[in-house]
Amino acid sequence: MADLKALIFDVDGTLADTERDGHRVAFNKAFEEAGLDWEWSVALYGKLLAVTGGKERIRYYLDHYNPDFPGPADLDGFIAALHAAKTDHYTRMLSQGLIPMRNGVKRLLQEARQAGLRLAIATTTTPANVSALLQHSLDPDAERWFEVIAAGDIVPAKKPAPDIYLWALDQMGLQGDACIAFEDSHNGVQSASQASISSILVTTNGYTAEDDFNGARLVVDQFGEPEQPFQVKFGETGGRQFVDLALLRALHDRADP
Fold first, then answer.
1. How far apart are CA 199 and CA 254, in angstroms?
2. Average pLDDT over residues 70-82
3. Residue 50 contacts by C-beta under 8 Å, 6 or more apart in sequence?
4. Which of 59, 65, 74, 188 is 20 to 30 A distant from 139 in Cα terms?
5. Which residues contact 8 (CB under 8 A, 6 or more apart)?
6. Longest pairwise C-alpha distance within the chain
7. 203 - beta bridge partners?
């Protein structure tokens, strides 16, 4: 097993709980703005999250929940425009400080930076979403904290395909066994696993709590803080009650070669 050199983070649901009251709301605003009577409820959006990628999610919705919609001749362009409008609404919400980072995220990132660990992001969300979240919810300079930001359509196949992780690893010149991946969903765990990252830590949220996390080394409900401990759903923490570098190094050391 190689020494731990880098931490690679998913974004939506992992760094911030963005889905229910962020992306879902922004989608609905975009639909309304376009004169559509579509309304993605909390329950429906939970089902749509099985599909990664916003444009892919809209297409899946049309195919499976609204097949009688009389789509325009240029359906791809129509979907892309809807998604662009949704991104505008979402980044506006972020600029207003409406979506905070999850508990323990900023502390952990600062610890990692101080220890000299390399940081990266591997996500299916758009680069604009990542930039807005980091700038407005973490730190105005936070984008520079990450050596690589692999986001959106930079690869053709999205999670659970490994492509986004493989691209990030290639950019960093690292193998998967030198990294820990942080995810929140079944698709994310599968993506990281197929990229030969065996050290995977999951922080669940309301949408993913019942996912199958086979392949993850540790599953907790949050990163936690000393005064706000996490709840362990799977794995061993050695008595630790929040995610810190000591826990991460122990997690990585236990990973299968």
1. 8
2. 96
3. 187
4. 188
5. 119, 120, 121, 122, 165, 168, 179, 180, 181, 182, 192, 197
6. 59
7. 220
- Residues in the chain, how many? 257
Helix/strand/coil (H/E/C) assignment for every residue in 1-15:
CCCCCEEEECCECCC
Structure tokens that stand for 56 in this block: 């892919």
Cis peptide leading into residue 140 (ω within 30°): no
Q: In the chain, which residue ranges form alpha helices assigned H by DSSP?
A: 24-33, 42-48, 54-64, 75-95, 105-114, 127-133, 163-172, 186-194, 245-254
Query: Which residue type sits at 73?
Result: A
Judging by DSSP bridges, how do beta strands 118-122 and 148-150 pair with one another?
parallel
Write out pLDDT tens, residues 117-173: 999 999 999 998 999 999 999 999 999 999 999 998 899 999 999 999 999 999 999
Distances (CA, A) of 12 to 96, 183, 185: 18, 9, 10
pTM of the model: 0.89
Is the dihedral angle over the CA atoms 25, 29, 32, 36 positive or is it negative?
A: negative
Q: Known catalytic residue: 12?
A: yes
CA distance 235 to 209: 15
Residue with tokens 């979240």: 133
Q: Which of 135, 140, 197, 189 is nearest to 172 (CA)?
A: 197
Give the active site residue among 10, 177, 184, 211.
Answer: 10
Q: Please tell me the distance from the alpha carbon of residue 195 to that of residue 162, in angstroms, as a whole number.
A: 5
Identify whether the C-beta of residue 149 lies closer than 8 Å to the C-beta of residue 121.
yes
Active-site annotation holder among 3, 12, 177, 212: 12
